[in-house]
């Protein structure tokens, strides 16, 4: 499969690198309004290929996207000093709509993956601008937050993160919801596994893991300015699930008709990912508090887009 990446900054290039290291595509092409950057990323990642998988790297204007099965949108628009959130959003939406029109022109059959922030809103912008069905416009959403949740819980319990199943739902942001009540280790609920392993999962532990997940991006940004490896790897994983029609269950964001009583909102739920994009959405088993938190998260997203369309 050929994968296009629009936006060859830290996130876009980390995705390209992760795809090359995993052998996730036959060809990866970069497009960026900074053409020299796109070219340089393609060349640099191309030099990793002899140590990795046979992936062909390229860069250029939007024409290079021709034949792509997936296009990742990782173009970032920085906030201007003093700019309001809604004004930034409106500007982002405008830039994104232009980018999407050009992507659609050259890669009409491509499924879109949205990585630009605020990702849930950009996913809705991309879906509206592209006119594609919602299941073909997938935002990374809480894909990375769920990975962080699993990793922190696994570390606490002393088991592999791969054996921990749990999701972060809702907005990729402050209102996101850690679905503690449906988390499993192996096939066991948390209280049972904690008992069997002799490791307590107290309120204090939960609060620490919750903060660890919720504040991860802030911590990393404080240390290195931005985050890119985690999301890059997540994007490569998502690409493989689509390319191989894996039917893998991941928490990703798509525009959804109704979530927790809130109509028409893009946010993350556990979804089955295959060649057609989101093949189905799973209804998580949550307790009352978690449903209420998910509803609040949906409301936060709805409110933040009020006046945008
Ligand atoms: P991030 O950390 O989100 O990757 P960066 O600033 O490193 O942020 O990268 C964003 C990239 O998106 C930059 O290389 C920038 O040139 C590119 N970009 C921004 N706007 C557009 C656009 N309209 N079309 C194509 N690329 C864009």
From TrEMBL:
Mechanisms controlling activity: Allosterically activated by fructose 1,6-bisphosphate (FBP).
Amino-acid positions noted as binding NAD(+) in the UniProt annotation, renumbered to this chain: 7-12, 32, 62, 76-77, 92, 115-117, 140
GO molecular function: L-lactate dehydrogenase (NAD+) activity
InterPro entries, per the entry: L-lactate/malate_DH (IPR001557), L-lactate_DH (IPR011304), L-lactate_DH_AS (IPR018177), Lactate/malate_DH_C (IPR022383), Lactate/malate_DH_N (IPR001236), Lactate_DH/Glyco_Ohase_4_C (IPR015955), NAD(P)-bd_dom_sf (IPR036291)
Residues the record lists as Phosphotyrosine modifications: 218
Biological role: Catalyzes the reversible oxidation of malate to oxaloacetate. Catalyzes the conversion of lactate to pyruvate.
Keyword Cytoplasm attached: yes
Root EC class: oxidoreductase
Functional pathway: Fermentation; pyruvate fermentation to lactate; (S)-lactate from pyruvate: step 1/1
Binding site for beta-D-fructose 1,6-bisphosphate: 150, 165
GO cellular component, one term: cytoplasm
Residues bound to substrate: 79, 85, 117-120, 145-148, 227
Species, as recorded: Rhodobacter viridis
Protein name from the UniProt record: L-lactate dehydrogenase
Lactate/malate dehydrogenase C-terminal domain ranges (all copies): 142-304
Keyword flag NAD: yes
GO biological process, one term: lactate metabolic process
Origin organism lineage: Bacteria, Pseudomonadati, Pseudomonadota, Alphaproteobacteria, Rhodobacterales
Domain Lactate/malate dehydrogenase N-terminal: 1-139
Stated family: Belongs to the LDH/MDH superfamily. LDH family.
Self-association state and partner proteins as the record states: Homotetramer.
């Amino acid at each position: 499969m050929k994968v296009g990446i629009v936006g060859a900054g830290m996130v876009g290039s980390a995705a390209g690198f992760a795809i090359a290291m995993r052998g996730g595509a036959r060809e990866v092409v970069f497009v960026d309004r900074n053409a020299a950057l796109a070219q340089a990323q393609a060349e640099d990642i191309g030099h990793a290929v002899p140590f990795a998988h046979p992936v062909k790297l390229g860069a250029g204007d939007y024409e290079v996207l021709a034949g792509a099965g997936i296009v990742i949108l990782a173009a970032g628009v920085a906030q201007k000093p003093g700019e309001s959130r809604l004004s930034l959003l409106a500007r982002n939406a405008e830039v994104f709509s232009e980018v999407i029109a050009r992507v659609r022109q050259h890669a009409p059959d491509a499924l879109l993956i949205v990585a630009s922030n605020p990702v849930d809103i950009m996913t809705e912008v991309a879906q509206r601008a592209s006119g594609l069905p919602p299941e073909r416009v997938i935002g990374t959403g809480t894909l990375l937050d769920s990975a962080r949740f699993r990793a922190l819980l696994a570390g606490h319990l002393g088991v592999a993160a791969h054996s921990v199943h749990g999701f972060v739902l809702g907005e990729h942001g402050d209102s996101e919801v850690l679905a503690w009540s449906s988390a499993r280790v192996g096939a066991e609920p948390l209280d049972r596994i904690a008992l069997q392993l002799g490791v307590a999962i107290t309120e204090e532990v939960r609060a620490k893991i919750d903060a660890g997940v919720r504040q991860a991006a802030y911590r990393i940004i404080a240390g290195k300015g931005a985050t890119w490896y985690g999301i890059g790897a997540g994007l490569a994983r998502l690409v493989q699930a689509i390319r191989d029609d894996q039917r893998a269950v991941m928490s990703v964001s798509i525009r959804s008709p109704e979530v927790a009583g809130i109509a028409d909102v893009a946010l993350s739920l556990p979804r089955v990912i295959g060649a057609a994009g989101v093949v189905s959405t799973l209804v998580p088993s949550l307790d009352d508090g978690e449903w209420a938190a998910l509803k609040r998260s949906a409301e936060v997203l709805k409110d933040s887009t009020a006046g945008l369309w």
